[in-house]
Automatic annotation (TrEMBL):
Entry GO MF terms: potassium ion transmembrane transporter activity
Protein name: Potassium transporter
Origin organism lineage: Eukaryota, Viridiplantae, Streptophyta, Embryophyta, Tracheophyta
Organism: Carpinus fangiana
Compartments where found: Cell membrane
Family to which this protein belongs: Belongs to the HAK/KUP transporter (TC 2.A.72.3) family.
């Protein structure tokens, strides 16, 4: 590859201590773009040796110096240490996690027996055993098909490196197909250890066609994003109401046992309990799980025990409900009322989505063990026991009824999960097309049936979670829409490299000692806000680092893989780009001083490796020229014929080929002059740059931030102006700035105002 005299942005990647023999692929930035990252470290060279006396073409393998491109902070020290993100535990640890899940994951499922039959039989009167057995059969098969068959055995496997939920599925899809609305993906992101990118093979044309269709059509990208945001919004809307419903349903059971205990008392006690429950959330999932797990374990044990007692005492013949024919008889007898009763039946799976959404706190095996061994059998026994009791005392069905249970958002979330998991099956798992389509046909059909039934509960209070979900959907999509337009505007307005070269290394102003960290969202190119700083400030720092905080579609980015460094402009400009990568579960809690120290250490390693790489390439070229000259002199030596002279270098090259696979790094070191090994001592430009960097460090850091407003262009539609100029602007004004997140002192901050017209 040709260099363009330092005009392009060059970059360096620190590889593992194994250095030259690492197995990872490299990428290279030229003029802000990325070239093919799959070029091999060995290349086939053809030399016309007739010019040096051999008279024929010779093919040989030459060790090409590794072009180290993107920099990972401490990758040299820990290469391969984070090759995968797993949750491997011992058996006892898994059992302990399974015990904790009872207190965190299964609270809603565990309290569902309080109100399921009460709601079902508020729509259908108990007139015969068909009503009880049909309702019980519906509940049993609903739990068996959706939480057990769908979530435990299929959906939990579609996790994103151990993380679950709607956004985790979307992140997983974004890694395998470039469907992210923000166009800031880089080839270097695929080298993150938790990325695990395995693109569909060319043989599987179906997966490739789906991937290409998603990447090519912006409409599909938008629809996929809206679908994910809708599912996430419904989770939030459902989560707002579910705790209150569960607590109040539990407390309402006291109304029939304590004389004078009315609705006002139920509401008051429920509020006190909810305040107490939410106040302890700050202590973390682990402590909350250990605190509530014993109580929930006792609760499930009680459910199972009471169920067995009711079965044996009242009517064990309810076991006939395992025959799904009673579902048919139930609908045949009650017709429209039975359809309405499905809205109450769906309450038995309230909280099933939590098994997938809370996966990041536990493990797949722990959640599977807890559900199959404790939750599922105890719930079945509880419902069978209630049915046995109702067979004998049908008039008691409304005793635990709580009138305002809306479960609509829950079914909507399940439909979203079914659709996304189907896409994962087709695109990533590359499942057989028949099996992949069976998943949405079976589970999607069941969920759509339940959705049509629960729509009747909109007037009974089901509208409330939908209103919440709609509000959250509008907020999230407005933020995404405005952010994409802002990013596109910044890309269009980047400063050209020709203009930077015209300014010269002084940047048209005075360079004073110090390091300026200019925060922006661009992963390549020089942001236009830098021009505003040059116009507004009387001087600029001797070292400039463009810092980009970038979120990649992985749960967590290891600290040692956090940063990517590149050089911007020629060496004497002392300008660099640092891309700080975070996963969607990473929390930016680092202190600004720790961030500065890590950044400086990373920059020094970048400079040393860059100098070593350039020296490696330069000395290799020199050694190639020297070896050719030696062979040309040897060819004129007396003794032997021309054919023997021709065979000698060929045999030598053959040995090089045979030894190439044993130790690439050792061969590279042996083949090069010893001057390459001591590049730090003999490269004056490196020493000068390091000394200039140390001088800048002593002068301190300055955080250069853009206080930017975003406004719609004058010729935009009225709705776009309304969304951007008011709603999106309001959200930007009320979001925490980067300086607040990193706790940067105000005296270290310089802000310049700028307006982006989108």
């Amino acid at each position: 590859m040709e260099e363009h005299d330092g005009i392009e942005e060059s970059s360096v990647r620190l590889v593992g201590s194994g250095g030259g023999s690492g197995g990872g692929s490299d990428s290279r930035w030229v003029d802000g773009s990325e070239l093919d990252s799959d070029s091999p470290p060995w290349s086939v060279l053809e030399e016309n040796e007739g010019r040096i006396g051999y008279g024929s073409m010779r093919r040989r393998l030459a060790k090409r110096p590794r072009r180290v491109d993107s920099f990972d902070v401490e990758a040299m020290e820990i290469a391969g240490a984070h090759g995968h993100h797993s949750k491997d535990q011992t058996l006892w640890h898994t059992i302990a996690l399974a015990f904790q899940t009872l207190g965190v994951v299964y609270g809603d499922l565990g309290t569902s027996p309080l109100y399921v039959f009460a709601d079902v039989f508020s729509k259908v009167e108990i007139e015969s055993e068909v009503d009880v057995l049909g309702a019980l059969s519906l509940v049993m098969y609903t739990i068996a098909l959706l939480p057990l068959a769908k979530y435990v055995f299929v959906v939990l496997k579609a996790n994103d490196n151990g993380e679950g939920g709607t956004f985790a599925l979307y992140s997983l899809i974004c890694r395998y197909a470039n469907v992210n609305m923000l166009p800031n993906r880089q080839a270097a992101d695929e080298q993150i250890s938790s990325f695990r990118l395995k693109l569909p093979t060319p043989e599987l044309e179906r997966a490739l066609k789906i991937k290409e269709a998603l990447e090519r059509r912006s409409t599909l990208k938008t629809l996929l994003l809206l679908f994910v945001l809708m599912g996430t919004s419904m989770i939030i809307g459902d989560g707002i109401l579910t705790p209150a419903i569960s607590v109040m349903s539990a407390v309402s059971g006291l109304k029939g046992e304590i004389e004078g205990f009315g609705t006002s008392a139920v509401v008051f006690i429920a509020i006190v309990m909810l305040v107490g429950l939410f106040s302890i959330q700050q202590f973390g999932t682990g402590k909350v799980g250990f605190m509530f797990a014993p109580a929930l374990a006792l609760w499930f044990f009680s459910l199972g025990s009471i169920g067995i007692y009711n079965l044996l005492k009242h009517d064990i013949t309810v076991l006939r409900a395992f025959n799904p024919a009673y579902i048919y008889l139930f609908f045949k007898k009650n017709s429209t009322d039975a359809w309405s009763a499905l809205g109450g039946c769906v309450l038995c799976i309230t909280g099933a989505e939590a098994m997938f959404a809370d996966l990041g706190h536990f493990s797949v095996r722990a959640i599977q063990i807890a559900f199959t061994c404790i939750v599922f059998p105890c719930l079945l026994l509880a419902y069978m026991g209630q049915a046995a009791y109702l067979m004998k005392y049908p008039a008691s069905a409304d005793r635990i009824f709580y009138d305002s249970v809306p479960g609509i958002a829950e079914v909507g979330v399940m439909i979203v999960s079914t659709s996304l998991v189907t896409l994962v099956m087709l695109l990533i798992w590359k499942t057989n097309i028949f099996l992949a389509l069976c998943f949405p046909l079976v589970f999607g059909s069941i969920e759509l049936i339940y959705l049509s039934a629960v729509l009747t509960k909109i007037k009974e209070g089901g509208w409330l979670p939908l209103v919440f979900a709609t509000c959250f959907l509008c907020v999230m999509y407005t933020w995404n829409y405005g952010s994409v337009l802002k990013y596109q505007s910044e890309v269009r307005e980047t400063i050209s490299m020709d203009f930077m070269l015209e300014l010269g290394s002084t940047l048209g102003t005075v360079r004073v000692p110090g390091i300026g960290l200019l925060y922006n969202e661009l992963v390549q190119g020089i942001p236009s806000i830098f021009g505003q700083f040059l116009l507004s400030l009387p001087a600029i720092h001797s070292t400039i680092v463009f810092v980009c905080i970038k979120y990649v579609p992985v749960p967590v980015v290891p600290q040692e893989e956090r940063f990517l460094f590149r050089r911007v402009c020629p060496k004497d400009y002392h300008m660099f780009r640092c891309v700080a990568r975070y996963g969607y579960k990473d929390v930016r809690k680092e202190d600004h001083q720790a961030f500065e120290q890590l950044l400086v250490e990373s920059l020094e390693k970048f400079l040393r490796r860059e100098a070593q790489d350039l020296a490696l390439e330069s000395n290799w070229n020199d050694s190639e020229f020297d070896s050719v000259s030696v062979r040309s002199r040897d060819s004129g030596a007396p003794g032997g014929d021309g054919n023997e002279d021709l065979r000698t270098p060929l045999m030598h090259d053959r040995r090089l080929v045979e030894e190439a696979g044993t130790s690439a790094s050792e061969e590279a070191a042996a083949a090069l002059p010893s001057s390459v090994m001591s590049v730090d001592d003999e490269d004056p430009s490196l020493e000068y740059e390091l000394s200039a960097l140390r001088e800048a460090i002593e002068s301190g850091f300055t955080y250069m931030l853009a206080h930017s407003d975003v406004k719609a262009k004058k010729n935009s539609f009225f709705f776009k102006k309304l969304v951007i100029n008011y709603f999106y602007a309001f959200m930007r004004r009320n979001c925490r700035a980067g300086a607040a997140v990193m706790r940067v002192p105000h005296m270290n901050i310089i802000e310049v105002g700028m307006t982006n017209m989108v």
